[in-house]
Amino acid sequence: MSLTLLLDMDDTLLVNDMDRFLPVYLQKLATHLQDSVSPDQMILSLIAGTRAMVHKQMPGKTLESTFDEIFYAGIKGTKEQFAGQLNDFYARVYPDLKSVTAPMPGAVNFVEWAFAQGYTVAIATNPLFPRTAIEQRLEWAGLSLSKYPFALVTSFESLHYAKPNPAYYAEILAQLAWPEQPVAMVGNSLTDDIQPARAIGLSA
Known about the structure:
By secondary structure, this protein is mainly alpha-helical. It folds into two domains: 4-16 and 103-199, Rossmann fold (3-Layer(aba) Sandwich); 18-99. Helix content is 48%, strand content 8%. The protein is built from eight helices and five strands. It has helices at 18-32, 39-54, 63-74, 79-93, 107-116, 131-140, 166-175, 190-199; strands spanning 4-7, 14-15, 102-103, 120-123, 183-186. The protein has a three-stranded parallel beta sheet with strand order 4-1-5. A two-stranded antiparallel ribbon has the order 2-3. The radius of gyration is 17 Å and the shape is globular.
């Protein structure tokens, strides 16, 4: 039987407790940008931008655009002004966060088994980070994009909704060209993964 699998990432494919990961991430990013914006203001603005993405209901703008409007207004700067510093952060500092995570036992074997069955496999992580941050976490999980041909990897550049909005799952199906075969969501969160996927008729 042909099947499309949507796989959550954090605490599904990668051991990554966000209650531990996010404070370290925020501290490192705030330190990296402290010559341009106060750490407190940066963190408050990032949290406000993230909340706007989570609560977004209308399809007009990507999550990235939604975040940018809130975040850059909060730090009183422009995306162009901070692009170099942020690119440098994700290239040189963000990789240090690997130490806060660990490979999930059995995850690589499961993904390889799914591909061996001929299944379509997509990464359905909450798209609240830029693509580079998500790709790096996949590498930490042992699931590099250079090795595994995932049909889709969600990130804030290309999505208009976030978990737990059921529209997030509908948008994934649209980006996968509305697969005719059964679609199943695999994740660790009842509220973010299982319930909203079931709300639009997916197996979970």
